[in-house]
Amino acid sequence: MKIGLDIMGGDFAPEANVSGAILANKELPQDTSIVLFGDQDVVREKLVELGGNPDDFEIVHAPDVITMHDHPTRAIPQKPNSTISKGFDLLASGEIQAFASTGNTGAMLVGAIYKVNAVPGIIRPCITSTIPNIKGGNSLILDVGANADCKPDVLYQFAILGSMYAKEVYGIENPKVGLLNIGEEETKGNLLTQSAFKLMQDTTDFNFTGNIEGRDIFTGKVDVIVCDGFTGNVVLKQAEGLFGLMQKRGLRDEYFDRFNYENYGGTPILGVNSNVIIGHGISNDIAVKNMLLHSYDVTKSKLTDKIKEAIN
Amino acid sequence: MKIGLDIMGGDFAPEANVSGAILANKELPQDTSIVLFGDQDVVREKLVELGGNPDDFEIVHAPDVITMHDHPTRAIPQKPNSTISKGFDLLASGEIQAFASTGNTGAMLVGAIYKVNAVPGIIRPCITSTIPNIKGGNSLILDVGANADCKPDVLYQFAILGSMYAKEVYGIENPKVGLLNIGEEETKGNLLTQSAFKLMQDTTDFNFTGNIEGRDIFTGKVDVIVCDGFTGNVVLKQAEGLFGLMQKRGLRDEYFDRFNYENYGGTPILGVNSNVIIGHGISNDIAVKNMLLHSYDVTKSKLTDKIKEAIN
After folding, report:
1. Would you tell me how many other CB atoms lie within 10 Å of the CB of residue A77?
2. Distance from the first to the final alpha carbon of chain A
3. What is the pLDDT of residue A264?
4. Which of B50, B70, B218, B276 is in Cβ range 3.0-4.6 Å of B75 for a Cys bridge?
């Protein structure tokens, strides 16, 4: 397996990425290699500087960079020699099996949708986030920002995608799916969740357990929390904000330490024809390492192939 | 001033309400009295049992109760002798100047809208919540559940209502208003927030400072956070859930202690023709006391009259 990494993504590029790749390379199986996308001189120089062996990595020369200020939909055609554009070229041609970046999320989404394409039948690919729950496990929430406006049938597909991710990558059998809502009763909600509830209530496509409220996001009441990308993004950033305040104020314990983004590193874009993993822009080397290990787990699980089978 | 209190609201009725009324009565000015709505025998008995003096209170006999299981829109006409129905009767006739309850929020909303009516020009009355911010003050978020689906002009009015509440009751001059969104740039958001941003960006009706993200809810970046009632309800319950987990795990400090709902007690329904204050169903006596003191502050501020002037 070959996993591509954009060395220019995130706030601490290229060091955090190169360093993370060196760390991940020590933990990945022998038959898996990391392909670094960046200016080849910079990559080699940084590898040596940070104690890595250039012979352990493949390097794809990509001297240009899509920054956070580039327009997501225009960036890829405008910068064909950027790390992200080159990454998607090799992902689309099958030369690499996964591509990971902590860079411009919008450009990653556009690349995923226009260069490797949505799985036929998937209306809207989406992004998940992993939420540590108080029971000791993880719950998934999706969508967390790729689709600000959703229709009920899109939420229905998110439930399928989230269930498959929970099962195939996190090993959760028959994952419980909850619809994020403003009351537990089926009549509660906005027009979107009321309609989505009706679509979901008698389904056999996934294990729907009903509505959940904001207070249940962290309790592990369900394994997969389904919502539109606007709500999910607000939830995620609110949790990050509160966790950040707790850290600043020295309030920590075993449970809340699990909120540290470093532990998760990255999350796949679900519903596209290959393994695209995006990481947080503030990622350090540990987060990048974990993003690469998660890329391995996602690819190894053949989640993408299983989604294709399930949808068609 | 006369403030009405439903003694049958909430999980700990009637004790928590009667006890809260006794506590509030000691702190309210001489010219203000509390009117208790409930079965008169129960009210008198509980007053004596809990150490209050029945002569300090007016009692309105209301032997029936709207429970949490009653349908909000049908409960008031179906139960004319309930505490909530009687409360709204006296509020509508001007015999009391405020009415407070920790009972069925839906019934309170329906009573507010159909018995005292929305202020002419207000499209949708709404509910706020007070969020302690890290700067030491409070931020308001609205709507938190009265209106799950909103149009952009409704969010615009929420900004006016929230600004006036922040100024008149919390004494915040020229309160900063932020639109809760999934990015700070004006192009970010769902269809609702993108349109609302356009309506707000050049306004002189309130001090609009732009979009804020989930991570800024607690930072005091703005004084008034505007969102639809679905998003606001999820935000509020998520914060309550996380605060509850922190409490259970013994993680506390001066800032997070301010999240205790007891401190706030209640919140007015904004945009109706009188002072209607709703409290949390889990309210204890301290929370009820603070709900009554807040009812006094809201009524004293003449917020309702000022909203009428501003809207017309």
Report:
1. 10
2. 26
3. 81
4. B70
Q: Which residue of B has its CA nearest to A217?
A: B238
Coil, helix or strand at residue B142:
strand
Give yes or no for residue A312 having a pLDDT over 90: no
Residue B22 pLDDT more than 90? yes
Q: What integer is the mean pLDDT of B136-151?
A: 95
Which CATH code is given to the segment(s) A128-261?
Answer: 3.40.718.10
Taking each helix axis as running N to C, give the angle between helix A15-27 and helix A40-49, from 0 to 180 degrees, rounded to the nearest 10.
70
**Euclidean distance between CA atoms A80 and A93, whole angstroms:** 15
Q: Rounded to an integer, what distance in angstroms lies between the CA atom of residue A142 and that of residue A137? A: 17
Amino acid at A241: G
- Which of B238, B244, B253 has its CB closest to that of A235? B238
Contacts of B249 in chain A (CB under 8 A): 253, 255-256
**pLDDT tops 90 at residue A219:** yes
Q: Domain B1-122+271-312: which CATH class? A: alpha beta
Phi/psi at A301 (5° precision): -70, -15
- Work out the average pLDDT over B103-110: 94
Mean pLDDT value of segment B130-142? 94
The third-level CATH classification (topology) of the domain covering B124-260 is Isopropylmalate Dehydrogenase (3.40.718)
HEC per residue, B204-224: CCCEEEEEECHHHCCCCCCCE
CB-CB contact of B5 with B35 (8 Å) = yes
Pairing of strands B275-279, B266-270: antiparallel
Q: What 3-state DSSP class applies to B282? A: coil
Element (H, E) at A298: helix A285-300
Structural contact between residues B37 and B83, judged by C-beta atoms closer than 8 angstroms = yes
Mean pLDDT of the B52-56 span: 95
Q: What is the ipTM of this complex?
A: 0.94
